[in-house]
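Researcher: For the record, we're logging two predictions in this thread. I'll number them. Prediction 1 follows.
Model: Prediction 1, sequence and structure:
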Amino acid sequence: MPHENTTPHETGSPASAAGRWTVGGDLPVNRMGFGAMRLPGRTWEGPAGDPEAAVAVLRRAVELGVDHIDTAAFYFYKDLSANAFIRQALHPYPDDLVIATKVGPDRSPDHDWLDAAGPAKLKADVHRNLRQLGVDRLDLVYLRFLSQDGPGEGRFEALAELREEGLIRHLGVSNATAAQLAEAQAIAPVAAVQNRYSPVSRDAEADALVELCARQNIAFVPFFPLGGAGAPHIAALRRVADRHGASPAQVGLAWSLSVSPAVLAIPGTSSPAHLEENVAAAALTLDTEDLAALAAA
């Protein structure tokens, strides 16, 4: 359905083919973006990524029209860091580039996941992102919830304080329920929600949250757009892909973009060829027969 927040992009870049969304009312981005999680390592446990390839992928993404990059300080493997790659590849940043990061969980130098952060740790992590990215203000910062910890106990308030100080432009929530979103909104405006969502990872509650975000002009940014382990072996997905001469991964991304104009895609990769394939999915249009087949699967 049409939405007042979605506009065409005059450049005609590959990433603009799915249209535009204005995050928080003042940050227009192409709906096809890029996620930096896989740049330091293929998984949390490695193997290590290729630094030259990481820099090349980031620069090529921007050339293709990507103007929304998603990252986090806890995206690292040993001494390789997604934030460091972004700074090396793109700083000084293009004026229209939106960099989103997230805080909440963290990892030790040995890669162990730590407990949910309290207000002081959250503020420290925001400053760590500022230093690593080399910026004075972060465009978008998500508070990522672990299980049911939510925005309470001063956690979202801590980020709202940094927003008031001018260190953060917009706030988001990640891994959030509708109730947690409402709880956060009672503290400060929420510009984006980042949750797991894909053709193989959805339910009525998730669908309702996407619709709620669209009604409230909140961007919905799915992570793991194919379930988190590459393109799943689903017959219907393969049939739709074959019909369009596309890959299952491209169909999964096109499906996400078709669900709502509020959806922004952030597929990640460390491969230049895979990047080109992902961005090309912005131009893939699924018809009602395709969508019905995927819904049935």
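Researcher: Logged. Prediction 2.
Model: Prediction 2, sequence and structure:
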Amino acid sequence: MDTRKLKYFLAVVDHAGFNRAAEHLLIAQPSLSQTIAGLEKELGVPLFHRIGRRAVLSEAGKELVGPARLVMRDLDAAQSAVQALRGVRSGRLDIITMPSPGIEPLTSMIAGFTRQHPSVRLNVSAAFTPEEVIESVRTGSTEIGLAGASTPIRVPGVQVLELERQPLILIVNPQADTFSPGEAIQREDLGGHRLIASQRGSLMRWLVDDALAHGVDTEIVVEVAHRTSILPLVLAGVGHAVMPSSWAPLAHRSGLRTLLIEPVSHLDVAILSRKEDLTPAARAFLKVAELHVEAGPENAPPPVRSIG
């Protein structure tokens, strides 16, 4: 088995079929099919089920995806290490992040990293749960993961660096701002208000559901999976939104008021990586993350404040 065959196999997986994979690889589709058939013959098992024009992974194919990604990642690491010795600072770094850590601290860390390593291309993909981030890092789909949870993240076999704690805030709908002056509210103050909520499973949704369970008369008017819609919905007067403090700078730049919700709940944000065999780019990014931690609170998002 050679790495070319694994590269072709992963291309079919990532592009959901032979035709698009062949276009991506800039080879003829029959040549790709022949290579995959040769790989299946070597392994003695089918890797795909051909259903019409679709290629669906077999059980054996599913088992091969993770190891194949690790092999390709290790090859990239070897090439990057040799290039580094020659003074070449290029390459690619794959990152996966949940939405709120993807605003901060990821933005600040990427800004610092790209200043030091302008020739490295970053590819950032999305996840919505810590489990998705952990699986992506474990399988080698990505080298770096950013996740947030209600408690500190602990994962056997995965390196975890705690970055910061983000308190939950209320981004205030300016058309329904009947809150008292100040910088904080109590959870019961949400009574009588309409809220834009994240889907179940997030810390922000838990706070809203917990308030409802304790008799706070609030109403979920919109449930949003794509959190990029939340600020526009608040600006449009649809409702208030409970979010981590990483969203405060964007809210303030949009002219919105934010309030700390007491008692305070925190999103614990951490960066995840494999414990070994990282590319030079990944190791360099982790150094930037360590500097972020060393910088302390002054490197975190600006404090919650009132606008207007």
